[in-house]
Write a structure and sequence with these properties.
mainly beta; two-stranded antiparallel ribbon; Metallo-beta-lactamase, Chain A; RibonucZ/Hydroxyglut_hydro
Length: 230
Amino acid sequence: MVMKVVQLRVGRARELATGDWDCDCSVTLVTIATKHVLVDTGGAWAAPELQASLAARGLAPEDISLVVCSHGHSDHVGCLALFPHATHIVGRDINRRHEYVAAGVLARDQSIGRCTATVSADGAITTLVLDPSDAPLQVVTTPGHTGSCVSVLLASESPFNFERADGANSTVHRVAIVGDLWECDGDEGWWRDLSEMPALHEKSRAFVLAWQPEMLVPGHGAAFAPTAQD
């Protein structure tokens, strides 16, 4: 199996003197076999930057097979329309063009770690997953920032390459791409202020840490190696 991960864009979130925020999200590209998966898209105004970053890697929007948006906030879903040929996952919503795919998780379900979709080692995309254990990419529920948040967990017994946005490379076995479950490295003092359900959010963070990722891609910052204190 060939798998590689690139943080295409480092998200940002900073409070302005007016009390407003300057923010846009991290964007990550995952390649498994011949399939390309995008995790979060940025806001609508990030479209030229996103297209340029894909083109720099020899990809066009139609080469993306799956787009996973960790939740439905506008800074994470703004470029979905660039990818009409892809399957779209937004939180717990799964769409293939006009078809709404049953994810098997009710809107009111607050369980953590439920798998709603996978990408297999040969690149096959599956929803309504009964046994996700062998899939290198799993989309799992991690509610808290919003009630419908999901994260993307990547795992392989064979090491794979993780490329940071600055071009630095690491060899890893586990990566978690978590949207705003983490805003950024060192967000402990303020993530709760942006969370719909802080108590559940904290449990989702603990779930991801217990999974022991070597790299974590947050919603609004550079990838980092998490510790138990995060």
